[in-house]
Amino acid sequence: MFTGKRFITKGIAEEIPYCIQNVMWAMIENMQVDKKDYLQVFKLEKGYDDSKVLVQKLIHCQEQPEYKKIITVPICQDKVLETKVYVIDDGDYATMLLADEY
Question: Backbone phi, then psi, for 55, in 5-degree steps?
Answer without folding.
Answer: -140, 165
